Every structure is written in C-alpha cells, then in structure tokens.
Give the backbone structure.
Amino acid sequence: MPGTPDMHPIPFDPAAKEVRLPAPAKINLFLHIVGRRPDGYHLLQTAFRLLDWGDEIQLSLRSDGRILRTTDVPGVPPETDLVVRAACALQQATGSSQGVEIGVCKRIPMGGGLGGGSSDAATVLIALNRMWGCKLPGKRLQEIGLSLGADVPFFVFGETAFAEGVGEALQALSVAPAWYVVIAPGVSVPTAEIFSAEELTRNTEPIIMRAFATHTTRNDMQATVCKRFPEVAEALVWLSQYGAARMSGSGACIFAPFDSEEEARQVAAAAPQGWKVWVASGLDRHPLQGWLV
C-alpha cells in the first residue's frame, strides 16, 4: 500500500466494498499518574493529540463471515493483532454475518507510545461499523474499544482530548496549532514493565482541564523509561536543545512542538543518524469522524 495516507476528512461511500483508510498517530501532551484502582489499573490524566501522519488500513468486505489479516506484521500473530480483535469484537457485539480482509501498512513504530495498534483498531471499528451496516453509536464503539486497549476510545472519539480514568473519560480540548518533530530512538518500550516499576510516581496531584494551559505538566513515566532505556534519554537530551521535548505515552518516542513546518524540518534534518525522525502537524479531527453514526 504505497503513498502517505490522506488525513483530510474522508466521506463514507455506502457502495464501497474495498477501502484504504488512515490510522493517525497520537502524542500525549502530558501524562500524569494520579492513583491506582483496587484492580491494579492506574488512574491517569493526559491530553491526547492526533498527528497528520500514521498507519494505513485496507479493508475488503467478505460475505462469508471470515476475518483475515492479509499482511504480515513482524512479531504480531494475526490472532493477537488489535485489528483482527477489533473486527471480531464488533462482529460479536452486533451479530454481523459479514467478514473482512484487513491489510495493515505500518509506519507507527511499535512500543513507541504513539498509539499505533490502538489507532489501527479504532479505524477498523469505525469503518466496519458503517460498511457492515451495524449502526452502533460512537459511545458504544468506544466501549468496545476499551475492551481492546485504553487508548482505543480516544481514537474513536477523534479529536484533541483531555482524558481521565484509565484514559477512557474524554472531554474535547482546544490547543494551539503546532508542528512536531517526533523521534523514535530505536528501542521498543514494554508498557506493562514501566507501569509495574517500583520507582514510578503514582500520586501526582490531579489538575482540572481548564487549568491545563497554565499548569506545569510532565510525563510521569519519562524518568523511569529514561533510567531503563538510555537511548530514550539520549534522544530527549538532544531534542531538548531545540524545544520543549517530552516523551509520548510510555515511550519510546520523543517529540517537541514548533511554530512552523520550516523550523521543525530544520531540526529534524539535524538529527543524528540511526534515529527515525518525522515531522507532523497536529490534527484537530480524525479523518473518519464523519463516519460515526
């Protein structure tokens, strides 16, 4: 599936049996861990922002009910891939007898904190909900998405959001336009390992959404990841020379905002060899938001 996915709003075509659709990456503008539930899940506060860059999903409808992944994703068997699990979950929730072939063009690095698998799953849920004629409302898709992963509801929600709980309690958030330099330092960070680290801060004082713009924020997972993965720390130190660099999610990717595309591209061009570096702008709306019923 060549080319860069179109991140402009994509209209739904009820006659289409085969589509190629974007699955945008996200960054966490901040991430605070404010507590822990009795079941062990961490309580978070974060601000999610979509980027106009990401994966691409190809869907081809089948009439026999089978759900097949048609592309290989290294290290991810089909039965554990979130795109397959998302299609199966929607099929189970609605009783749909239709099937689909799913192709995945991966650009978002795995274990990078950019939400690649979750975004892929959300694109599948949103698209198949319309293509199969299931007609579930967006809130129900978010509930199904939460059973797959904590970030999936945000991608279904589809706009810049202040999030609480485990990441599923979402409120629309307005932020200034920005261009971002995103660096993948070449390591994959296991989220579960970082969440279970003894030294992880879990008692940050909660903030209120309207104070977000003026409040001093951070990523509570950043210090733990940098301690265990020196490659992340190195990328953070380097990018901090040019802007307010921060780790996204549980890592490993580092980002910094810039006022213009030109400035961002100049910084990206100066990055040391061996890192994967992207320039992307913030995306206010998911390209498939018009597909929600």
